[in-house]
Design goal:
The structure holds two protein chains of two kinds. Helices cover 51% and strands 6% of the residues of chain A. Chain A is mainly alpha-helical. The radius of gyration of chain A is 22 Å and the shape is globular. Chain B has a two-stranded antiparallel ribbon. Chain B has one domain. In chain B, helix 3 runs parallel beside helix 6 and helix 7 crosses helix 8. The relative contact order of chain B is 0.15. Chain B is globular. The chains are: A mainly alpha, B mainly alpha. The interface between A and B is large, with 63 and 61 residues.
Amino acid sequence: MKRILFALFGIALSGSIVLAAGENGPLNDMIVEFLTERGSTVQLAPPNQLTRRMSIDLTGVTPTLADMEATEAMSPEQMFDYYVGIGPMPHTGGISAYAWVNLLHDADEFLFSNSVQFSQVTHIQEYNTQLERLYSEDWSYQEFTRWALTSQMFLNRFPSGADRANAAFFLFLGRDSFSNEVPAGNMWNGYVLRNPNLDASDAETNPDYHVYDYDPSRCGTEVICEAELWSQVGSTPEAVIGQIVESPLFAEAVVERYWQRMIGTPLPGVDFPVIRTSLAQNLIANNYSVNWLIREIATSPAYTQEMMFR
Amino acid sequence: MKATRMLPTTLVLPLLLIGACSLGPMSENAPPVDSAADAGPSGGSDGYTLSFYYGPMKPMYAESILYSVERITGHDFGAWDHTTPDPASNAFNNSGNANGAWYPHCRLLGGCMDHRIPLGRTSFLGTAYVLQLEKAVAEACYDRAAFGHFPGGVAPTESVQAIDIIRHQFAVALAANPTEEDLARSIEYFDSHIADPEFDDVTAMESAGRGHCRALMTTNRFLFY
């Protein structure tokens, strides 16, 4: 049905089609319900407007005449797949345009935020490589986060366990440690955090300065090894990281991050939490695939609505 | 060359348009939003409810602006590789992965972040932003070696009409066909510029086409998507 509708769009570019509940998936129904409750309707964007939006969001640049011609009669799903399928461009350094543009956003959120300033260049390069796997290899965001919280870049930037806990909450739960939902905890007790044979002046230049070396034999004598979060005591920091990435807050924070990236505004929350919770549950069911999440959002009426200058 | 002649118009227009973007829906198709209690999940006064109703409306990232302008015109701003850490170390000696005008344009448009300078991406669109956008777009559109913004990617021949250039530039820059109102205003622009060309080293049609390119890509219709 939708393909027919979009074919009609190709004939009458200026026409508007009102989407009703039931024509698409559960997320679409929720968004239509959200708008209907508020006396509004979903008017899908004409193809030329949608193709420009998707091209910029999924490749980082405006579409060419050939792109516009190729996508003119496509459904949003087909259009999404078209732009995600575009390979490397001159400016993308050999990676696909889709991975490149997402890395641009990730750089804002992870690499170049206050959270990782002054990290070593080699550590950031490694972090970037792992980030790229999210998009090019469909790596699980949950597994990426497990890796990130034990990465040299993260350990390099945050010298104390308390700092690391705060940063982990902020980056991956979307909340700071003052939130009632995430009581502060020291996640890296018992870890040797630096090479004792090197001087502190080596911190930014010597890759061997920061280490991540857990030594259980020191527990109870030199250091306290139990890490606590949400009143559950884990024997190792990995156990606490497990609590973070398996928390419902984690999946919701991922949904919030990518919704903001694609729609440009926060998710409706207080009065209409069902979109957030549903997306989070489905993200978990899809093995924390951010590619699935981006596609779900970009083909929903929240994204494919007609833009109106105002 | 009278490059400054159109400056007031091209400066004021984007400012007015960008300013208008923050005023709220003006379309007659807009649903009623004057009742704050019913307007959305957060009461309708925070702006995001409106965007949710009307589809996403975001300003392009600085990097997207510059790469798009390069793609549209064929101009080369230089290089910047954000995936390589610490490109700013090359930015100030114009070498490596940061050369040409790329970094100054990009940084002043709020982008090209690096992990050394503790400044986040800026989203405020003020006078300095518009001036920088003006400068970058003018550099590309006035590049005599760049013809991507003309039909066929070549200098306009005698057979090329103003309307051909207008339609081409609307398509590549805005992915849109010009409306009747757009066409009338653009043709008026061409007529006045052909009668008194801005540049004397190219044909009058090319001169007008380069000015039109500059005007088009400094509007909110190019910047927002």
